[in-house]
Fold this sequence. Notes:
Blueprint: E1 2-11, E2 19-29, E3 34-38, H1 45-53, E4 60-65, E5 68-69, H2 75-78, E6 82-85, H3 99-107, H4 121-134, H5 151-163, E7 169-173, H6 181-198, E8 202-205, H7 209-214, E9 218-223, E10 226-232, H8 233-237, H9 241-251, H10 259-263
Parallel strand pairs: 3-8, 3-9, 6-7, 7-8
Antiparallel strand pairs: 1-2, 1-4, 4-5, 9-10
Amino acid sequence: MLKMTNIYKTFNPNTVNEKLVLRGLNVELKDGDFVTVIGGNGAGKSTMLNMIAGVHFPDQGSITLDGEDITGLPEHKRAKYLGRVFQDPMMGTAANMEIEENLALAYRRGQKRGLNWGITKEEKELYVEKLKMLDLGLETRLTAKVGLLSGGQRQALTLLMATLQQPKLLLLDEHTAALDPKTASKVLELSEQIIASYSLTALMVTHNMKNAIQYGNRLIMMYEGKIIYDVSGEEKKNLHVSDLLEKFEKASGGEFANDRMILS
């Protein structure tokens, strides 16, 4: 479903702030893979997601999605293939619009827009059905402004919006990091449920090693712009946080570059 081949990316080249972020990155995701990605700050995790989304373009290498070369495709043209949930719950929704209006925007993504904005009865029934999956009572609040919702409710709604059109690839960029532990756990469970029910291919960046082990069928560890560990199946199920810490310690020469990773 996704293939990134020999990807290099340098920010601020030929300046004092030059930083090589991705160094010959190679990633391949099969259809239906749910891959968790961990690594310290500066490992290149978010840059990789931004590269897939078209926010940044590689200096070298190629990216294909479901067999189509999207390396030079601009961000807005990739949007119909991708769903994305960001770390900030406020980024994925329009606060001044109603819940049903936000869902309508997501539902019509990639379609040609006419002058008629009305939300049909069939659409409302669909939105109610989908909102019931979240088990947050939002199906009875279709006309409520999204700005009135809690951070967890907004993130759950963003997740639903990102998957309403069943994208070829779902990108989750530390999407529970800004939530309290209980709400984060709920959103992670919803993520797993939605990914499984639609058989989506997903890439989830996280700093939490327990979550990286618990969720998905495959785990990737990044360090200095490369993949240093790639594990799946039974081997992944039998992993412990201590195993990941040991891998990271070996790769970093014994120095932990990221306190958050340890504290997770």
